[in-house]
Amino acid sequence: MIGQPNPVPERRVKPVTAIAELVGSAEGIGARLWMLVAAAALALGAAIVVPDPAVRLGAQLAGMTLLAMAGLIALMMRIHRARSDRALGVLELVVGQDATPCFTTDEQGVIGFRNAAARARFESVPGGTLVAALQDHFASPGSVLFRLQSRAAAGGLAREDVVTRRGHVRLSAHRMTTGQFLWRLEEFQDRSQSRGAETLSLPMLVANRAGVVLFCNEAMRRLVGRRPRHLDRLFTDPHPGAGEAVEVATDEGPVRAFLAEVQGPGERRELYFMPVPDRRPDTPTLTDFEHVPVALMKFAPDGKLDAANRAAREMLALAADDRPGFGDLFEGLGRSIQAWLADVASGRGPAKSEVLRVSRGPEDAFVQILLRQIVEQGRVRVLAVLTDATALKTLEAQFTQSQKMQAIGLLAGGIAHDFNNLLTAISGHCDLLLLRHDALDPDYADLVQIRQNANRAAALVGQLLAFSRKQKLTPERIELQDLLSDLAHLLNRLVGENVTLRVAHAPDLGTIRADRRQLEQVIMNLVVNARDAMPQGGVIRIETEALTLEDDLPRERAVIPRGDYAVVRVLDTGQGIPPDRIPKIFEPFYTTKRPGEGTGLGLSTVYGIVKQSGGFVFVDSEVGLGTVFHLYFPINEEADAPVLDPPPPMTRPLGRQGEGVVLLVEDEAPVRAFASRALRLRGYTVIEAESAEDALETLRDPAIDVDIFVTDVVMPGMDGPSWVRQALEQRPDVRVVFVSGYTEESLWDRQDRIPNAVFLPKPFSLGELTAVVQGQLH
């Protein structure tokens, strides 16, 4: 194989081919044939003169064998010549008149056949190999031919474009038979290699990806003083970049020139050089740089500040002679600042702006920075355009906080739902145990403690539901003056003796619509929070105000729509809240109190109840002076909707407690086990199903008579209301009890109400469950 040792392939050999290989190549077959004939004549002559009959017979056999071999070889020679003549005829017919030079070679690269174009183009080239024929046309022809021949031997065809002195050549290698290859050399005239490039006054060269110079024009040779061989010896900078000034090593010393690069075919690079005229360093480039009303800065590729105009210095509080680094001025990029500058300076990647925090400027100041590559006096610089982004960053922080509160609310609601399932199982099984123990039993007190703590946990879950705005509310029209007057006595007991509580009412406050019990909880939580902020005593004031907004009022992370509002303010003279803690105070479990002094759910409960009531809550605080909580509730002057008479009850025979069949559908096994035992203890027949699909499958049997469905609302697969609607199509008289850890409002938000259905929130006790079922049945 060309340029490499020729390994002997392992293959099966036919007998005729083996003889041909034994005798030798076609060029040496004639000499070996006469040797065989001479040996046969000697053997036959010996058979005549030798007296021994046995020896004479052996000599005769040997002579005849050699003559037969000679005849066979002669026949093979004729066949070989005939095949060669036919092959040459076919090649002459196919590529003989092709305008592209074509060759055939063996594995060693020895040329066998040439068409007319090849003979005309390479007639004067000495040597019998293709490597020798192409030696003066492009660099390293041996490696190129070896690579193509290897690929053609493996795949049958290989092709590659190679830059030559006259342009570029497309070399194609085709595998013919074992050890034979057909080569085609298509030559193309290239614009960079044409006479125009050679006579171009602008220095240029062509190099491959390895940096080997394949061509340079006369102007380039005059600039360098010689024909360059490799780019490493041409540039003083090991990584020259297009579009910047570089130093070119010449025989007369380094010369600065602008470098431009054009991608050419065949994985080559076309480099053009424009010498930079000598300029004085004080030549101005941006005459209006200092007075442009946009903050501009110029940095070296290593990040050192070169210049900053007046707008940039005022924005960043810089002196005229300050020269800090880019990393000393800005922070918060999220990746290497040096890498960012290097990418811009070299022209890599699309230019995009970044919002960074100012390290040396005002606190919490942000700028949007757009970087651009510029060239001044042959030196690459990075121009930074700065825009104040503090307001944008503030809006982003407010939006992020809003999204976080929403996400925490969803999480709290999900946790509350799961905890309600657990608490239902705990308190329910505790009720079952209490049925088997009286007050004199030693375990009775422990069971009571378990139930009490389960109820405390249920209250905490209720606070989580309040924050996530998924608790059950019973809104009504409320006069704030009346509510605060009724609460005054209880609030005075809550604040203690060291704290003074003062209540001031505004006239004509108007009515609001909210859940009275929950609104009382809001006021108590805020008063208790104010009391805890004044351990040494102080004054808590509760004020009300009637407020009319003519326009929308932006406030912190919300916008209060225009309209009439009743405002409640709770003020204290306590320690105040640091500014960095104010955005977190409404988050669940966030507290600054010591362990054991609070759960961290008081203010989050306030936030959830006010939001669920359609109001707004804000806080103003100053460390050392106190805190003010503002509650905005929209005025509601509409009359309450008239109470409709309940529909007449269904006509069905009255039964006694414990009579009836209950289909219990609950995916939580502990809750299902407790509810099933509780109903059976009261005498009901219970059919259990762990999913809606199982329940519908059970109801397919017409022999099963069911009086009431007790089903969870949220289950994997089909939910409670969906399967109940399907079941009621065939059993319209069945009553329904829905149970859920969410609120009743969340059950009917997106679905029409189901007739003869009631809602039982989790966690429920044994008595509550049996009472609701009994009430539905009777």
| β-strand number | 30
Low-confidence stretches: 3-27, 279-287, 641-656
Question: What helical percentage do the residues reach?
Answer: 25-40%
Content-based structural category:
alpha+beta
The pLDDT mean sits at 75
Main β-sheet, in a few words?
6 strands, antiparallel
- Strand order in space, largest sheet: 12-11-16-15-14-13
Give the terminus-to-terminus CA distance. Answer: 101 Å
Number of helices: 21
As a whole number of angstroms, the C-alpha radius of gyration is 49 Å
Please state roughly what percent of the residues sit in beta strands, choosing from under 5%, 5-15%, 15-25%, 25-35%, 35-45% or over 45%. Answer: 15-25%
Q: Which term fits the overall shape?
A: flat
Secondary-structure map:
Elements: H1 15-23, H2 26-49, H3 53-95, E1 102-105, E2 111-114, H4 116-121, H5 130-133, H6 141-155, E3 157-163, E4 168-175, E5 181-188, H7 195-198, E6 204-208, E7 213-216, H8 218-224, E8 245-250, E9 253-264, E10 268-275, E11 295-299, E12 305-308, H9 310-316, H10 326-329, E13 330-331, H11 337-346, E14 354-358, E15 366-376, E16 379-388, H12 390-435, H13 444-467, E17 475-479, H14 480-495, E18 499-504, E19 511-515, H15 516-532, E20 538-549, E21 553-555, E22 558-560, E23 563-572, H16 602-612, E24 616-622, E25 626-634, E26 661-665, H17 669-681, E27 685-689, H18 692-699, E28 708-712, H19 720-730, E29 735-740, H20 744-748, E30 757-761, H21 766-777
Parallel strand pairs: 18-20, 26-27, 26-28, 28-29, 29-30
Antiparallel strand pairs: 1-2, 1-5, 3-4, 4-5, 6-7, 6-10, 8-9, 9-10, 11-12, 11-16, 13-14, 14-15, 15-16, 17-19, 20-23, 21-22, 23-25, 24-25
Helix pairs in contact: 2-3, 12-13, 12-17, 13-16, 14-15, 15-16, 18-19
